[in-house]
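Aim 2, interim progress: modelling of the iron/sulfur cluster-bound target.
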Amino acid sequence: MRLTKFTDLALRAVMRLAVSEQAGPLTTRQVAEAMEVPYAHMAKAVTRLQHLGVLEARRGRGGGLGLTGPGRRASVGWLVRELEGGGEVVACDGDPPCPLNGACRLRHALRDAQEAFYAALDPLTVNDLVASPTGPVLVGLVGRRPA
Ligand code: SF4
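Predicted structure of the complex, ligand included:
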């Protein structure tokens, strides 16, 4: 199973922001630069993560993006399911739909495999993702300050 690019960069943002208390708050542009993804793509991911309640934008001095408490404790399996949007791994109902789509054992097996994939991520929290050795590396990925 392959995650969408959108899910991957949203997870990168979450991981980078999970260590922001050690390295200082960051703007969306700085997160994009630190994780080496285009700003416009990162802005879309940040908006989606805010809607999910995982991130919040803090205003004022020392402000910037930060994880919410529930975001920090969120299950990675839940987060990936939300970001992926519940689609199947094969487009059985595409245009034109597959002629087997009403009675396909393979489709059922793929759904089970997809659920097993998510289930393997369920016990992990966002906090778990930034334990050593990942966390210290993330702290060093500081985006450039905007001009
Ligand atoms: S063969 Fe089965 S799994 Fe593949 S597209 Fe058709 S319905 Fe879906």
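Strands lie at 55-58, 64-67. The CA atoms of residues 10 and 45 lie 5 Å apart.
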